[in-house]
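As noted in the main text, all predictions were made from sequence alone. Below is one such record, for Acyl-coenzyme A oxidase.
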Amino acid sequence: MEAEAAVDYLVDERSKAQFDIDAMKIIWAGGKHEFEVSDRMARLVASDPVFRKDNRAILDRKELFKNTLRKAAHAWKRIIELRLSEQEASKLRFFVDEPAYTDLHWGMFIPVIKGQGTEEQRKKWLPMAYRMQIIGCYAQTELGHGSNVQGLETTATFDPELDEFVIHSPTLTSSKWWPGGLGRASTHAVVFARLITDGKDHGINGFIVQLRSLDDHLPLPGIIIGDIGMKFGNGAYNTMDNGFLRFDHVRIPRDQMLMRVKQVTREGKVVQSDVPWQLLYGTMVYVRQTIVADASCALSRAVCIATRYSAVRRQFGSQNGHETQVIDYRTQQSRLFPLLASAYAFRFVGEWLKWLYMDVTQRLQARDFSTLPEAHACTAGLKSLTTSVTADAIEECRKLCGGHGYLCSSGLPELFAVYVPACTYEGDNIVLLLQVARFLMKTVSQLGSGERPVGTTTYLLRLEHLLQCPCDVQGAEDWLKPDVVVQLFEARSARMTVACAKSLSKFSKPEDGFMDLSADLVSVATAHCQLIVVSKFVEKLQQDIPGEGVKQQLEALCSIYALSLLKKHLGDFLSTSCITSKQASLANDVLRSLYSQVRPNAIALVDAFNYTDHFLGSVLGRYDGNVYPKLYEEALKDPLNESVVPDGYHEYLQPVLKQRLRTARL
Ligand SMILES: CCCCC/C=C\C/C=C\C/C=C\C/C=C\CCCC(=O)SCCNC(=O)CCNC(=O)[C@H](O)C(C)(C)COP(=O)(O)OP(=O)(O)OC[C@H]1O[C@@H](n2cnc3c(N)ncnc32)[C@H](O)[C@@H]1OP(=O)(O)O
Ligand SMILES: Cc1cc2nc3c(=O)[nH]c(=O)nc-3n(C[C@H](O)[C@H](O)[C@H](O)COP(=O)(O)OP(=O)(O)OC[C@H]3O[C@@H](n4cnc5c(N)ncnc54)[C@H](O)[C@@H]3O)c2cc1C
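Prediction:
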């Protein structure tokens, strides 16, 4: 009975949608072709029993890891058999949805050789890597240093006699610690180490080092290697073999130093090429950009689960003889719909960031390095903003699902455990925001010197205006005007930036100021990054958006994104006199009416993500809404339910029960 009623809830919900959902699916996917590829790969993975993943939380580490190896090998087999393109293969791996050494091989090892190798090095190493004849990882972080890349201790000392580098770990803290894929799978690594020639330290650089034999996978001489142990959560990121690695005077040929940024000649002379040294950090810029795109996937997945379940779940009250769907509670809407809006916002900012990254790459090839600092600031800042919001949002979605959200079968605990390290890897989120703040302070300080701000900082050219312009909101409807909202976010960011720059100028040493004001600098960077997301959403809406009602839905979501941020950071907007308290109260009224506008479309808006039940991996987020019987089904699959009387009853339960009986008689 309940099961049928639950199914009905979602059918009814879907019939209320006021927009063309197929058109929205294409917008979400980023185009017709992208939608077709994504849809095909998702179905391919979902229909293949090797890719089942509902048992991850109960497998022990060894079984779990072996199963990951099996899935990765099967994925590779399918990629070859079906002659999948690079785009299709990467989508297939995405839908397999299991962190694995292949993420680092394709996501970092290949990109670092592409970005930091010479033409010759690329020709030598990439074909082997593309065919997976070698498996590589990215070994930068050490036990003692992660954020402070310049503080790495591993050494690469040039031996001119043998024309080789000697890679060595001089201290315990110089052990490589964390690299994914290193622990068990990789045969090779790009190792970041201090380049030393003729007794002189030339700073860090990447080196290709073979770690394990290609015949029997045993570590090569001088290599001490292993897995760093269990991480947060069962299943979750434990499918990944994050590893440790120590070198005892390991020798590699000179041509295995990645030489795009610096070269070492046969005589041991170090030659700096004319590209900026920061390109050594280029792979991190690339991966940060992909992490932003990935944030909208994780966020939309959690939101899809919470939204569908909120429509199925009923609690208290009465609507036509039924209890109230929890999605109809204003409190539920005010927690859920800003997250739904953020998922769309991050999708569009991710698309834009991909474009920015391609643009900077093309410019670098043409030896135009002018936009590199901005690309670094945008990728760092948006990586930080989107991953922090997404991690918090997954936890919020768990709470939005009440008690059942805490069950592994809701999919949310594992999603959270897999996702939270994104706030740390590829740059700790606070460290990255401080990089953005540094960039903003530098941009402001150069305004008078004729240096023109570029791209996302162009608004600072209108600084005088932004520092005193009043907010143009007289009536509630003014809050729906995109130019009013964008200018408001510009004014807030500009005012906070200038206030911080003024405070900084009071310090005789800028570095002291940076230390003392770092918490404020993080707020400034956050305000700037939120402005970028809002303005990229608005720009997206200025493009041609086909499909009946699609644009209207996206406009509502864009307003929800911006106004819910305004509400959350009201202190910033009021303390910088960007708005009055009357305007804040009008914004709150508008938000409520926007929630009402989104409410009938909520299920269709999450259906537009086009996730299969396999990918969602959630009983609560099932497409058919058939939640309750499936919760039972999942519970009954638990190994604890395999026997009626639990293992251990005779040893540990029965004696206790008997003893209590005797005590009671006494
Ligand atoms: C099923 C799940 C799969 C999901 C996968 C989805 C997507 C991902 C896809 C592929 C990836 C695969 C798997 C993902 C999973 C895990 C991967 C994790 C891998 C790692 O986790 S891998 C280690 C990453 N580890 C860091 O992330 C260290 C952070 N630490 C730093 O990054 C630096 O150390 C910094 C910047 C903090 C200090 O650097 P510093 O000490 O040199 O100091 P300073 O601040 O003075 O900078 C001097 C001048 O360089 C400029 N500058 C700085 N950085 C730049 C850059 N990148 N580009 C251009 N310019 C840059 C500055 O703006 C300044 O410029 P100016 O002088 O003009 O002011
Ligand atoms: C799951 C996972 C996978 C990873 N994969 C890889 C990989 O494949 N390859 C690789 O090389 N590395 C990898 N890493 C390492 C990762 O990149 C680092 O852990 C990350 O860059 C953070 O550095 P840290 O550990 O040194 O943190 P720390 O810098 O020690 O951070 C500790 C605290 O100090 C604060 N802090 C640090 N510096 C400052 C500052 N200047 N100002 C203010 N606060 C500061 C931070 O905000 C944080 O709160 C991985 C890490 C994880 C968790």
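The chain has a mean pLDDT of 96. The longest helix spans residues 330-365. These features were considered when defining construct boundaries for the mutagenesis experiments described in Section 2.9.
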